[in-house]
Amino acid sequence: GQEVEANLAKMCASRFPLSALCGESGVEECKKIYKKKPSKCTCRDFTRENIGRCCCV
Q: Tell me: the pLDDT tens digits for 16-47?
């Protein structure tokens, strides 16, 4: 799984932080904010900052 994550991270067309940790709805939130269809988003938690970061393509 980690290689896929790394590859997707390189290809993020858009990266942006969420106001909270990803949680179960993080990816959906990312898609909502990104607004492009179709979109593929991942959400990674940054627990030190207490936020999730979206990566969308």
A: 999 999 999 999 999 999 999 999 999 999 99
Structure token pair of residue 12: 């993020």
Q: Are 54 and 20 in contact (CB under 8 A)?
A: no
Residues 56, 39 contacting (CB under 8 angstroms)? yes
Give the whole-angstrom CA distance, residue 44 versus residue 37. 21
**In one letter, which amino acid is 41?**
C
Residues present in the chain in total: 57
> What pTM was computed for the model?
0.78
